[in-house]
From TrEMBL:
Residues 72-306 form the Aminoglycoside phosphotransferase domain. Pfam families: APH. It comes from the Eukaryota. This is Aminoglycoside phosphotransferase domain-containing protein.
Amino acid sequence: MPTFIPRLHTSRCDPSSLNPLTAEQLDSRADEFVRAIDLEAVRALASSYNDGSPCRIDEMATARGSFNVCFFAKFDDRTWVVRIPIMPVIHDAWGKLQSEVCTMRYIQENTQIPIPRVHAHGQAQLSHDNSPKQAFMILDQIEGQQLVERQLLASSEEHRRRFYSELIDIYTQLRSLEFSAAGSLMPAQPQGSASAPVIVGAFSIPINELKIQGYSPQPSLSRSTAEFMSQQRRLLRDFYLLPTQSLDRQTAELELFALHSVGQIPVAVDRQHEPFVLSHTDLRWSNIMVDHELHIVGIIDWEWAGTVPASNLIPPSWITVSGHYFAEFRSVLASKYASSPHSKLLSEWNCEYTITSWVIEIFRNPHHLVSIFYTFIYPKIFTEPRQEVVPEYFCRRQKQLELKRLLQSSERHTKYLIENNLFIDDDDEEGRRAIIGVQVRKRRRVVTYIK
């Protein structure tokens, strides 16, 4: 059983007092970081880990995501991916990368889940400027393509059901990896085997977003489901206390009421002492690699993987929000019930998406709080329309003061943005790309979606 140790954190402050970086600031810093990467240094790095064999960097194939940029080093007989975390948008790039490598090696040693082999990882000078060394990972390129919805829709029922079956098998194997606490895996020794990792405070997208904005959440360690859920609620509230520009009263009311309601949803008694299991936590379409017949050939991007309560190991949201996908997925899961590992997963998922499942989705994607809560959770716990319930909630003086503080925080931050020429009008902002979701929560657009 892996050991359990905390990670040190910087001092905390009031998130509402901060002036978060704008999406444009983050985008600019990320662009500058990527432009400064020396392709010749990347090529030489890849070659050095393949016995000096010559290679070239296929610049046209370079792929950039929210948190990493990938360069493809082509040798005569293979292609390697040199993956570099984009440091301006990651609080602890080296720590996160070490955790990802440890997690991938642990999966390879303990499961049959298809993932790319890691050939090397470390820190090297890969930039033209004099910045600190960059973290990197070198891994195999997976032969296949990222799953896209049109491929799933166009596939035969036979191929879709086989795809769901393989996906369920992956979840079953993850469910079999049990731990004593929540967090992220790290090697017990710098270059040691992943067979005996330690558990540290979680690397997660919400925590990273808060830390990038200068706010340090409380240590993310828990040994029970109740502790874990309580911690996630605190992170969610901290996330929404970060100021955003031009926050209107209606949106603020919807957010605060949703935060309050999510905080009141109890943890089931029978889940208080459940085990912690390994979860990918970000199994979006693009992180599933398939061939032309929908065979899963690889699961990629394990950077935010971590141990969570077994009840938090849930199917991807792109399956559960679609009635058709979910019905077919549940049908395949039910057909595998005879197998003991699958029966455990089936009993825990209960073949339905519960309120708690939607709460878990909110914890993973905080900027979807309003849309998920009022679309999927509110109708299950309230009979009256939200236009009546939400305003009544704010009739209480304490809630009025809370609302006032949130709006004042937004006013202060908006003034700061204007005075420093950082204010972006919402109409202009729609066309801009956000590196991470803290500053650009698209609040008005989310509210419009639920009307």
